[in-house]
Amino acid sequence: KLDMGLHGGIKETLTALMPLLKEEEDESFLKAQLEIYSKVKEHLHSYVEDRGTKNKIRPEAVAGIIDKLATQDAIFTVDTGMCCVWGARYIQATGKRSLIGSFNHGSMANAMPHAIGAALSCPDRQVVAFCGDGGISMLLGDLATIKQYNLPIKLIVFNNRTLGMVKLEMEVAGLPDNETDLLNPDFAMVAQAMGIRGITIEDPEFLPELLAEAFAYDGPVLVNVMTDPNALAMPPKIEFKMIKGMATTMTKLMLGGRFQEVLDTVKAGYKHMGEVLD
Fold first, then answer.
1. Superfamily of segment(s) 48-226
2. Mean pLDDT of 58-72
3. Whole-prediction pTM value?
4. DSSP H helical ranges for 139-204
């Protein structure tokens, strides 16, 4: 129930409310939440340390390395879906960084056009775009715009060869994924054909080195990272119906002869078992 609705600018509204607030002396709730936050961050970091295998690079490791390479006032744009999760969880806030996405609108392919706008509006700040392979495929023509205006954007393509979030939503609903796999072009070569530096990363051993090379490059660059298609973006809260749906999906996949896919999913998400059991 809403007792009183307030409408106004953030600064003006907070300025008016601040004198009415009473400082809370009991810090038990704050301390409890900080402890939970610390444990969550520790758990998430375990995925950064594991870089994955060839053509199945962990997306968490990609985001974690980029977090260290990017400037303290960088602007990050994230595509809707898995890229949004990797950006939100592994890009550390500094008070000067910005994270731009479609979020509640849920529109695909927003990272690259957002990055173009950010680069034109803030030419003195580094701009990094987290692009899904499904998203960037929809707007490949925008690469020509980036080249024409020589915008020094770092385009990071999380190429898992699938519409990852759509696939996950189907699986938790108890439905084996259907028509979510993608037959992608070589995004690095497409970028090079447009006059943009293109780099493909298949082996996790060279992940830090090649990402550092991309971030040191003076100009637009597209990094095509072959990520694990079975990497799971776990929700903040796991409900029983999600577990039931995923179990139903895995059973249907096995009955359909897709044993290797089930095994790969288990291998990719085994660290999340603690969250499920909790």
1. Thiamin diphosphate (ThDP)-binding fold, Pyr/PP domains (3.40.50.970)
2. 97
3. 0.82
4. 142-148, 164-172, 187-193
